[in-house]
Specification:
With 360 residues, the chain is α/β, with parallel strands linked by helices. The protein is built from 13 helices and 14 strands. It has two domains: 166 residues, 3-Layer(aba) Sandwich (Rossmann fold), CATH 3.40.50; 177 residues, Dihydrodipicolinate Reductase, domain 2 (2-Layer Sandwich). The strands form three sheets. Strands 3-2-1-4-5-6 form a six-stranded parallel beta sheet, sandwiched between helices. A six-stranded mixed beta sheet has the order 10-7-11-14-13-12. Strand 1, helix 1 and strand 2 form a beta-alpha-beta unit. The two termini are 15 Å apart.
């Protein structure tokens, strides 16, 4: 099987590094281009990330000697790849224009950025939940004037812990949700070495995170109508997002009320029996079991459980009735695997399986 040629745009940052590691032996994709800002262009990848490599494993041998390109060299890059992952750190307007430029050069973009998440014809995908939203790509291509170029995005990492378990309960019509997320420092692209102010501390603010956490789920639960994704009108979601001294893993304390209140046993059964489509379940990066409920009172724990299913599964625990809401529970996701690069890779696998990613 000939692998698709992949570019990593923003490949020197933490998420880009995670992409490089995840793709080193991928059965379908091969990294042939790494691009970043002008200051890194012309260096080998190994030189560009020297003294700022943040993964626990060494730099993959297959990308060490790649010469980093300027991310703005769009013509050159698009001639060498079939599609790109974008994790570049620019402001929203610059990111939106850059991603559209790649798409208009007939190079699909799988984005980790927020710039295009609210475009009505850009699918925002958690493959196990709303993989059918990729159908909107045809409308997007018409807008962009492309034959094969498009943009698909991954949702914010903050919602990956609680949107999957709530998605398994949609038949009970959740109407109000309170979610407090306790988010790892890698979500800010940091390690403990370069974030000393988080040691022995909690920071009760993450810029823009609560707006994303409250609005993005409604797009994921929305429907395609008249060539656009129309957001779901409910549930009403309110959140608080807090940075905690944890390396990886976003934990959430969730409170939810339903129109059709289920029993505790029905909730756990819905979680344990939730199954994605066969297409998604058989993708190379898909977890064998997407959702897992712990019966122990003290689980899930970030350090113990963030790597469940290689960091691609979601864990829940402590489900009990509440005095204000119907129920409350705790849930956990790995923010740089499921929440960032791993979710992007899984989305690309889905798009290839559906025929949207092909060799040029």
């Amino acid at each position: 099987m000939n692998k698709l040629k992949v570019g990593l745009i923003g490949g020197t940052g933490m998420v880009g590094q995670r992409f490089a590691c995840l793709l080193k032996n991928h059965p379908w994709f091969e990294v042939t281009v790494i691009a970043a800002s002008k200051k890194s262009s012309g260096l080998t990848y190994e030189e560009a990330v020297k003294n700022r490599w943040k993964m626990n494993e060494p730099i993959p041998e297959n990308v060490k000697k790649l010469i980093v390109k300027d991310a703005l060299s769009i013509d050159e890059i698009c001639n060498e790849v079939d599609f790109v992952f974008c994790a570049i750190s620019l402001n929203k307007e610059e990111t939106r224009k850059l991603e559209e430029a790649y798409a208009k050069h007939e190079t699909p973009v799988i984005s980790n950025n927020s710039a295009n998440r609210y475009a009505a014809d850009v699918p925002m995908i958690i493959p196990e939940i709303n993989g059918e939203h990729t159908a909107i790509i045809e409308a997007q291509k018409k807008r962009l004037g492309t034959k094969r170029g498009f943009i698909a995005v991954k949702p914010n990492c903050s919602i990956q812990s609680y949107v999957p378990p709530i998605s398994a309960l949609l038949e009970f019509k959740p109407k109000t949700i309170l979610a407090c997320t306790y988010q790892a420092i890698s979500g800010a692209g940091k390690t403990f070495n370069d974030f000393p102010e988080i040691i022995d501390n909690v920071i009760p603010f993450i810029g823009g995170e609560e707006e994303k956490s409250e609005n993005e789920p409604l797009k994921i639960w929305g429907k395609i109508k008249n060539n656009q994704i129309v957001n779901a009108e409910s549930p009403i979601i309110t959140t608080q997002c807090i940075r905690v001294p944890v390396s990886d893993g976003h934990l959430a304390a969730v409170f939810v009320s339903f129109e059709k209140k289920p029993s505790r046993e029905e909730i756990i059964s819905s979680w344990e029996n939730y199954k994605p489509s066969n297409l998604v379940a058989n993708l190379p990066s898909a977890p064998k079991k997407f959702l897992h409920y712990f019966t122990e009172d003290n689980r899930p724990q970030t350090k113990l459980d963030r790597d469940y299913e290689h960091g691609m599964g979601i864990t829940m625990g402590r489900l009990r009735e509440d005095k204000v809401y119907d129920y409350k529970f705790v849930c956990l996701s790995h923010n740089t695997l499921r929440g960032a690069a791993g979710g992007g890779v899984l989305t690309a696998e889905l798009l290839k399986a559906q025929g949207y990613l092909i060799a040029k």
